[in-house]
Amino acid sequence: MAQAELKISAGMPSQFPRDILPQIAFSGRSNVGKSSLINTLLGRKSLARVSSSPGKTITVNFYVVDGKYYLVDLPGYGFAKRSEADKRRWSALTDGYFTANPDIDRLRAVVQLVDSRIGATKDDIMMIDFMNRSGIPYIIVATKTDKLNKTEREKNLAALAASDVIAPGTVIIPFSSLKGEGKDELTREIMRRIANKV
Questions:
Q1: Claim: this prediction has a pTM higher than 0.85
Q2: What is the mean pLDDT of residues 161-166?
Q3: DSSP letter at 29?
Q4: Distance (Å, rounded) from C-alpha 59 to C-alpha 75?
Q5: Domain range for 47
Q6: Do 179 and 146 touch, CB atoms closer than 8 A?
């Protein structure tokens, strides 16, 4: 099991840690299963808090793993009930991670989560398009695959792979926090990126 701890919950870019450790960031809409995925990857039950109120937390959470790299949990987007002020704060903080982060060169990849049941939403597409335009490498993780039957799974994953917005050759990993599907594949992919063997 990986040794992991929360280094800091940053509410503004000036609080981002300054060191040489490589980073893997996690992006996705609220309630896509981001906290559950991080907990599954790290073999922990509640290191990343699974909120009963999606979109409630607006911080960038830095988890240091084995003292060697960070998993960076970006705040979830697309939660309709969030106030306009909160939406602006989310936008400024997330944008700050990519544009006002002095250590952005430490970012090895973004793990972009997409709910396998509904496919890429408008907000997901905006995020993926931003990464395409910015030259930020990313991995697509299709979450909650355990909630699909075999036919739905094949259809939805094929549609995701055929998406015009996802860059050709992008790794797409089906994932279920409940069943542990995709954990080993995603771990290998993250370690490959950490080692810079892209």
A1: yes
A2: 94
A3: B
A4: 6
A5: 4-194
A6: yes
What CATH number did the domain enclosing 166 receive? 3.40.50.300
Rounded Cα distance, 146 and 154, in Å: 12
- Burial of 149-165, coded b for 16+ CB within 10 Å and e otherwise, reads eeeebeebbeebeebee
101 to each of 47, 50, 53, 75, how far by Cα in Å?
Answer: 24, 26, 28, 16
The tally of CA atoms less than 13 A away on the side-chain side of residue 184 is 2
pLDDT tens track for 51-105: 544 445 589 999 999 999 999 999 888 765 667 777 777 778 888 899 888 889 9
The pair phi, psi for residue 35, each rounded to 5°, is -65, -40
Label residue 172 exposed, middle or buried (CB < 10 Å: 0-12, 13-18, 19+). middle
Q: Total domain count for the chain? A: 1
Report the Cα–Cα distance between both ends of the chain, in Å, rounded: 25
C-alpha closest to that of 182 among 151, 149, 139, 150: 139
